[in-house]
């Protein structure tokens, strides 16, 4: 499946092998698709995902500081904005309907799977360079883009219509295309026109695949809330 998320992303996705499918076709995702995911699993996941997005936005803010060009800074800053001002609105609205305030969400205790993922991404940025960080960030952005595109469009009475529409929607798909263009430009700038085969490329593949595995663990965590 291709959604015009640039050239770098599909190469890293292919290098990740079956782990990518484990993530994008996980039982949790299939439960969202057919509507049979238990509500407790969804809400437990959503609370954790709110906290995830807070730390994920911190990681994109770190990417602003690791940028080498104004164009890179602007693209990373726009992603911080999309996370804390758009995507998170889904979580706030859905959880409010279930009786949870944003204060409750912000102060929720982090599940170890959540902690492992977000701190891995932040560490990729602290211990590595801009590309290390982008490679760790990419599975999150583009994976949900692929999932949303596959699960949408959806009927109004689907139990997970809001979630699916958020990721299938034009705004989120644009975030994915912008991130893909950012990634392509950053790779060309730092690794040249033929990045595959460079030592830097091998590291990117490792970062991307590890972050994808952490996405699988995140869905596993979500299912564990289902009782
Ligand atoms: C764990 C996770 N991964 C990705 C996304 C999509 N931004 C998300 N909300 N949560």
UniProtKB/TrEMBL annotation:
Keywords (A to Z) from UniProt: Hydrolase, Thiamine biosynthesis
Signal sequence extent: none
One term under GO cellular component: cytosol
Keyword check for Iron-sulfur: no
Keyword Protein biosynthesis assigned: no
Pathway the protein contributes to: Cofactor biosynthesis; thiamine diphosphate biosynthesis
InterPro entries: Haem_Oase-like_multi-hlx, Thiaminase-2/PQQC, Thiaminase_II, Thiamine_Salvage_TenA
Domain Thiaminase-2/PQQC positions: 18-223
Domain of life of the native organism: Bacteria
Record EC number: 3.5.99.2
Reaction it catalyzes: 4-amino-5-aminomethyl-2-methylpyrimidine + H2O = 4-amino-5-hydroxymethyl-2-methylpyrimidine + NH4(+); thiamine + H2O = 5-(2-hydroxyethyl)-4-methylthiazole + 4-amino-5-hydroxymethyl-2-methylpyrimidine + H(+)
GO MF term list: thiaminase activity
UniProt-listed GO biological process terms: thiamine biosynthetic process; thiamine diphosphate biosynthetic process
Gene3D superfamilies reported for this sequence: Heme oxygenase-like
Similarity section: Belongs to the TenA family.
Biological function: Catalyzes an amino-pyrimidine hydrolysis reaction at the C5' of the pyrimidine moiety of thiamine compounds, a reaction that is part of a thiamine salvage pathway.
UniProt-recorded name of the protein: Aminopyrimidine aminohydrolase
UniProt source species: Roseovarius azorensis
Organism phylogeny: Bacteria, Pseudomonadati, Pseudomonadota, Alphaproteobacteria, Rhodobacterales
